[in-house]
TrEMBL record:
Any Pfam family: ADC
GO molecular function, one term: lyase activity
SUPFAM superfamilies: Acetoacetate decarboxylase-like (SSF160104)
InterPro entries per UniProt: Acetoacetate_decarboxylase (IPR010451), ADC_dom_sf (IPR023375)
Protein name in UniProt: Acetoacetate decarboxylase
Gene3D superfamilies: Acetoacetate decarboxylase-like
């Protein structure tokens, strides 16, 4: 995907020498049931085993807000002039949608109608209570079925590319390449034994000129956390890599974390017009 805009033309999914259009292959057949390219998906979708890693960075507030302005969301400031951005990767191993790899570029935000949190402690408090939305700016994956499902059910900005994840005993690595060009490579420590208690987190997305909100719950075993971390590798040619460079990367993350065995659950979305408040 070369387009870096919020409102963009969705790519077809290439499969068996065909160009598949998500909205022609998928339908909602019941309040909690979907047909996704010939397969039935029933909500909630459960993930019984996934390994994930994440780097969190401070970025320039004005530049981050300019990037996501058409979403109707507002980036939150951890410090004056500094917003947050997450680069993450997930290896889904046992999942209702199959075994696949996923990466993401995410910004913690407020939605229309939500008050602005105070810097630092206010932001952290809302994050801990699951009251701060995470706007999914991009979510590349390495398989077609989850691309259709993620788009149609939750509005996620998915497309098929190369996402490679290596979850070792001491360090986890993830690489995201698209159309032959590097976008980002991140790492995080592993080997921790901390248990991550269930955490509610709203994910926000933009699709078909609408805003989508999905509540996910994540818990897990083998949580590892480190202040700082390794400087990520950022590509030099892909437009998304140029977006990350404009935001100040590569640089050291604020913190890095991984979860060796995560469990997740995703329910149905709430969908409103861009700029309108969510009801829940």
């Amino acid at each position: 995907m070369q387009d870096t805009r919020i409102l963009y033309a969705e790519q077809c999914v290439s499969a068996a020498e065909q160009e598949q259009v998500t909205d022609t292959l998928c339908s909602k057949t019941h309040e909690r049931e979907y047909q996704i390219n010939g397969q039935t998906v029933t909500l909630p979708v459960n993930v019984n085993n996934a390994a994930m890693l994440m780097n969190v960075f401070t970025v320039n507030t004005a530049k981050a807000q300019a990037l996501i302005a058409d979403s109707g969301f507002k980036v939150v400031e951890i410090l004056p002039g500094k917003a947050l951005m997450q680069l993450l990767a997930v290896d889904y191993r046992e999942n209702d949608l199959g075994d696949y790899n996923e990466a993401a570029i995410v910004f913690p935000v407020t939605a229309p109608g939500e008050s602005k949190p105070l810097p630092f402690f206010g932001v952290l408090s809302r994050m801990m209570r699951g009251q701060l939305g995470n706007f999914v700016y991009r979510m590349p994956v390495n398989q077609g079925f989850t691309t259709h499902a993620g788009r149609f059910i939750w509005g996620f900005p998915k497309w098929v590319c190369h996402v490679d994840i290596d979850f070792g005993p001491k360090t986890a690595f993830a690489q995201f390449h698209d159309e032959g060009h590097a976008v980002f490579s991140i790492s995080a420590p592993t080997g921790g034994k901390t248990v991550a208690k269930p955490q509610r987190a709203p994910s926000l997305a933009i699709r078909n000129n609408q805003a989508w909100k999905t509540i996910g719950i994540t818990e897990g075993e083998g949580l590892s956390f480190k202040l700082g971390g390794q400087v990520p590798e950022i590509g030099e040619k892909h437009p998304l890599a140029m977006v990350l460079r404009n935001l100040g990367l590569p640089k050291k993350p604020l913190f890095s974390l991984s979860i060796r065995k995560a469990k997740m659950q995703f329910d149905g979305p709430e969908v409103v017009s861009i700029g309108e408040p969510f009801e829940r």
